Amino acid sequence: MRRKKKYNKKVRNATVTVFNGVKFKSKLEKFTYQYLKVAGIPFKYEEDRFVLIDKFVYEGECIEKKKRKGKNVFLKSSENIPQATYLPDFTNLDQGWIIECKGLRTEAFNLRWKLFKNMLVKEKKSYDLYMPGTQKQILETINDIKRKQKELGQEDKERVSGRCRKKRNGS
Q: pTM for the whole thing?
C-alpha cells in the first residue's frame, strides 16, 4: 500500500521535509540548507522576522464574511488589527543577505514582498535579496554570496595591512 505524500497546504506542490531535525516547508528549502552548510556559509533558518505593518485599532464599523463551524457568516469584525510580518527562509544580516526560496509566487506573497522591500527602504536598510526558484538558481545564489564574502575578506586584509604599513612608517 502506497502512502500519500504530505503536501504543504499553504503552498501548492510543496512537500514538507525533515532533515537533521529541521522541518522544511519545501524540498527547495532543504536543498538550500544543505548547500549553504556544504559551502560553509553561516546562516539562520526562519529566525529573523520583520514587522511590515504594526498592529492598530480600526475605529469604524467593519462587517466581514467569516467562517464559523464550517459555514460562511457575515459578522462584525474585531477593531484590533494584528501586525503583518514577513519571515524569510534564510538570512545572514551581518553579511547583508536574505534568501527566499520560492517556487510558485502567489498574489499574497507578491504583496508581502513589496511591503518588505518598502519597509527596508523606509528603514534605510540594504540587503542583497535573493529569490531562487530552482536548484540551479540556488547554486548561483550561493556562489554569488561566496564571491562577495571573498571580496569583503580581501578588502579587510588590505585595510589591515594598510594600517600596519602606516604604523611601521609612522614609528
A: 0.77
